[in-house]
């Protein structure tokens, strides 16, 4: 449908979307962090399943469904890419990430494991706050984009996130025992896949030479375009 159509100008829509996602993820991170680790007294690193009906547990369950809705709402980004004809951004990493995170969240909520994943929820939502803040600033235009030198550090932080989650879920698999060790085992498999995919993206984006088209010195009337190997910024 979009093959022969002009790309939509969604700049203002995307600005509003990114701002909303910053606020939504910040709300999730603070609420889950407060209910789980302040009033709920959950263990930050080795929390097991909580199947009680305590008020704090019920509040966390409510927030967990909002977290799922938030992750499902991120699928609209694919629509933005298509409408803007940014088909290259609808990558395997993009699609797999959004689908698997939503499925993993639903899996944990349905089988009583959200208390186990509170640490990941807070950590991941915090990463998303920074990520969507970057997207918001980048959408303001080239004048702002040139100051966003910290993009690669954001990707590094995402990699650190997965390393921490891998270590944590390895510990949980060992300490929880069956049947609940199946939940962190599932999370562990997802984190390993994400880590490999994001590491591959990081290497391609920041460590490899990329071919770019740059303009030659215009002093000659025969100035032309040529390919040159340059470092990715």
From TrEMBL:
Location in the cell: Membrane
The UniProt record lists the keyword Lipid biosynthesis: yes
EC number(s) given by UniProt: 2.3.1.199
Keyword vocabulary terms for this entry: Fatty acid biosynthesis, Fatty acid metabolism, Lipid biosynthesis, Lipid metabolism, Membrane, Transferase, Transmembrane, Transmembrane helix
Enzymatic class: transferase
Membrane topology of the entry: Multi-pass membrane protein
Transmembrane segments: 12-37, 65-83, 95-114, 126-145, 157-177, 183-203
UniProt GO cellular component terms: endoplasmic reticulum membrane
Pfam families: ELO
Molecular function GO terms recorded: fatty acid elongase activity
Domain of life: Eukaryota
BP term (GO), one: fatty acid elongation, monounsaturated fatty acid
The reaction(s) this protein catalyses: a very-long-chain acyl-CoA + malonyl-CoA + H(+) = a very-long-chain 3-oxoacyl-CoA + CO2 + CoA
Family (UniProt): Belongs to the ELO family.
Protein name: Elongation of very long chain fatty acids protein
Species for this entry: Ixodes ricinus
């Amino acid at each position: 449908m979009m093959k022969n159509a002009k790309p939509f100008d969604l700049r203002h829509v995307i600005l509003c979307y990114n701002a909303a996602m910053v606020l939504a993820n910040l709300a999730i991170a603070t609420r889950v962090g407060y209910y789980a680790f302040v009033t709920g007294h959950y263990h930050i690193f080795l929390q097991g399943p909580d199947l009680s009906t305590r008020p704090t547990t019920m509040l966390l369950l409510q927030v967990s469904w909002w977290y799922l809705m938030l992750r499902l709402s991120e699928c609209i980004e694919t629509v933005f890419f298509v409408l803007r004809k940014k088909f290259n951004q609808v990558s395997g990493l993009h699609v797999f990430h959004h689908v698997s995170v939503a499925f993993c969240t639903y899996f944990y909520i349905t089988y009583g494991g959200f208390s186990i994943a509170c640490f990941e929820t807070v950590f991941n939502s915090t990463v998303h706050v920074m990520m969507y803040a970057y997207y918001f600033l980048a959408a303001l235009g080239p004048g702002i984009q040139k100051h966003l030198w910290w993009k690669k550090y954001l990707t590094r932080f995402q990699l650190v996130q997965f390393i921490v989650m891998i270590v944590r879920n390895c510990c949980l698999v060992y300490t929880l025992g069956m049947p609940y060790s199946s939940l962190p085992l599932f999370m562990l498999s997802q984190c390993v896949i994400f880590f490999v995919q994001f590491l591959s993206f990081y290497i391609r984006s920041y460590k490899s030479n990329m071919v770019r088209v740059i303009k030659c010195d215009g002093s000659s009337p025969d100035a032309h375009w040529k390919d040159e190997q340059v470092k990715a910024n």
